[in-house]
Design a protein that fits this description.
Chains A, B: InterPro entries: Cro/C1-type_HTH, Lambda_DNA-bd_dom_sf, TransReg_Diox_bact_type. 2 copies of one chain form a homodimer. By secondary structure, chain A is mainly alpha-helical. The first copy, chain A, contains 5 helices and no strands.
């Protein structure tokens, strides 16, 4: 399965666990609101700096987000 | 410090530990040779799928590469 789709799912899950709307996450990460929606839907591909910005806004580590994506990849294979 | 620069350093270190040239890593990851050089020099920013391709070619996990970047970030702050 495409890591992009799984990243979107993990991001949505972490955002909801943090009790944030897409708008609040975008504001906290300093990015465009619709960009969060595009990433969550697996349409836009986040680059390295974006991953760091999103992780900081969610209060987690970038490696932790990717670790969860890897776990979902394993489950889906 | 910019995670991009640190990612380049960690990538170079992991590539050397794996005993690969830039060309060999690029071939294994299915990407352009000069792209490895551009990332290692902190010039090009890898996106999510590229991070997964590079990790697979190095036989490590994407989250492990980012964990090492985070450790360097901590050391540099």
């Amino acid at each position: 399965m495409d890591p992009l789709v799984l990243f979107g799912r993990v991001l949505r899950q972490l955002r909801k666990e943090a009790g944030l709307t897409q708008e609040q996450l975008a504001l906290a990460a300093g990015i465009e609101r619709n960009y969060v929606s595009l990433i969550e839907r697996g349409i836009n591909q986040p680059a390295l700096r974006m991953i760091f910005k999103l992780a900081a806004a969610l209060g987690t580590a970038p490696s932790e987000i990717l670790r969860q994506v890897e776990a979902e990849l394993k489950d889906s294979s």
